[in-house]
Amino acid sequence: MRAFIPLLIFAFLTSILPISVNALPKADKVVVNKSAKKLYLISQGKRFRQYDIALGPQPQGDKIEAGDERTPEGRYILDYKHADSDFYKAIHISYPNNHDIEKARKQGRDPGGSIMIHGMPKNLKWPIELIQSFNWTNGCIAVTNAEMDEIWNAIDEGTPIEIQP
């Protein structure tokens, strides 16, 4: 009977505690491939998760200026998380960097900013499958809320992100 008591305690605790057997590892890099419309979580050089994404209506080409509805291309940092966003949760991308600012300055343009990976709008009225089937952001990278929860938990602030054409 004594050997049975620890087993009962373990069974009780596992039934009431939210334990995830499929917890994702921490990503040490995020890669976005705009032409494939994919976001990849990378750990130790290996992809361990991929997500379909939506971009802005002008997805091809690098971001040139504020309002062009393009997602920047290059290497950035996921520098902070925003839990109370208009788009469920959001993770800020460190755009513009010094290169982007200089490039825009030379062209007499404002590089813009506030580029994020984010979930769905809080006031979403359409089915998620429909909205994610076309590019609808202003240059951000959109995923579903469930996917955003996974990404949120898998990355830490300071994780590098590479956005490819």
Q: How does this structure look, described?
A:
With 165 residues, the protein is of the alpha+beta class. The protein has a single domain, classed as L,D-transpeptidase catalytic domain-like, CATH 2.40.440.10. Helices cover 22% and strands 25% of the residues. It is built from 4 helices and 8 strands. Strands 3-2-1-8-4-5-6-7 form an 8-stranded mixed β-sheet, covered by helices on one side. It is globular and about 45 Å long.
Helix/strand layout:
Blueprint: H1 4-16, E1 29-33, E2 38-43, E3 46-52, E4 74-82, E5 90-93, H2 98-106, E6 116-118, H3 128-131, E7 141-142, H4 145-154, E8 159-164
Short synopsis of the structure:
This protein has about 160 residues and is α+β, with helices and mostly antiparallel strands.
Oligomer: single chain
CATH topology: L,D-transpeptidase catalytic domain-like
Give a quick account of the main beta sheet: strands, pairing sense, barrel closure: 8 strands, mixed
**Number of continuous helical runs:** 4
Q: What does the overall shape look like?
A: globular
Q: Which percent range fits the helix content?
A: 10-25%
Outline the low-pLDDT stretches. Answer: 4-21
CATH superfamily: L,D-transpeptidase catalytic domain-like
Index terms:
single chain; 165 residues; alpha+beta; L,D-transpeptidase catalytic domain-like; 4 helices; 8 strands; globular
